[in-house]
Amino acid sequence: MTRRPASVRIVATGGTIAGAAPSPRDTSGYRAGALPAAALLADLPLQDDIRLDARQLASLDSKDALPELWQMLARELAQAQSDPGVDGVVLTHGTDTLEETAWFLHLTLALAKPLVITGAMRPATAISADGPMNLLQAVQVAACPWAARHGVVAVLNGRVHHARHLRKAHTHRVDAFDSGEAGAAGFVQDGYVGWLSPPRRRPLRFPPDTPLAPVDILFDYPGISTSMVDAVLRAGARGLVWAGYGNGSISGRIEPLLREAGRRGLAIVRATRTGAGRVAHPGTGDFIQAAGLDPYKARIALMLALGAGTPPAALQALFDTLSYE
């Protein structure tokens, strides 16, 4: 019996992968999201066992992406997951906020089919554009049914990254993304998809339409003004992620303000600004510990948790669970 070709849906949102510059020498002076999805797929050298259909959902520079975009994407991608004619999905996205979108989708979508996010560090018009290979390899991963067991993944520069550990770690190199201490989840080489880590445990899922509570991030630094905390409170935030020194340490002049804000109902997560490592429990219940989540992922988790009405007493257990997901 002949196996039908795998059907992969491309959902395009713009970004550098669809960027255009005046000269093929330009890798930074370009307009993101200038090209439609059809242009990205025009010369993609696909195998005969994969067919594509494309949908243009947005044409954004991802630095301008808002949380509302995450929710719109979640609804669109949930529909694709339930479409019997779709075997896998590739989302093209700008790299500036790709890691945030990947994490939100990972927390809100229960996958039965692969969902792969990709982007590029150089515009499509550059003489050495990385987008075409990234897109081709993302399609190849999306055509592999077992990729769904890894949750939302990103494919960039020949590597597969779990959403939980994905981070942008360089301003302009084509290998700008990594997975920190966890290492890449897998790799793609000439159409072969290899996995270096086991499938992901299924985390607690929030419905895609969960209201997103307003949550801010503040970074500690020598001489930080106490007015920063006041500004967060005046703006009506329901939560705050504090990106502190080392093991989430808080400046002595700021800590009393945070404790008072917590007593007034502000949910405060203590994270680290270092970029790696777990924030350990200090033996006090005054703050929620981000555990292994970086400030950006901790913020999204808190937005969803507060929006879903998670009781304050359950927030620490939630962060501990997500940290090990």
Could you walk me through the main structural features you see in this protein, from its secondary elements to its overall organization?
Residues 215-319 form the Asparaginase/glutaminase C-terminal domain. InterPro entries: AsnASE_II, Asp/glu_Ase-like_sf, Asparaginase/glutaminase-like, Asparaginase/glutaminase_AS1, Asparaginase/glutaminase_AS2, Asparaginase_C, L-asparaginase_C, L-asparaginase_N. Belongs to the asparaginase 1 family. The active site is at 16, 95. The structure is a single chain. The protein is of the alpha/beta class and 325 residues long. It has two domains: 6-195, L-asparaginase, N-terminal domain (Rossmann fold, 3-Layer(aba) Sandwich), CATH 3.40.50.1170; 215-323, Rossmann fold, CATH 3.40.50. Helix content is 26%, strand content 21%. It has eight helices and 14 strands. The chain has helices spanning 37-41, 67-82, 98-108, 131-142, 227-234, 255-263, 295-307, 315-323; strands at 6-14, 50-60, 88-92, 115-118, 153-156, 159-162, 167-168, 177-178, 186-189, 192-195, 215-219, 239-244, 267-272, 288-289. It has an eight-stranded mixed β-sheet. Strand 4, helix 4 and strand 5 (153-156) form a beta-alpha-beta unit. The two termini are 39 Å apart. The model has no long low-confidence stretch (mean pLDDT 92).
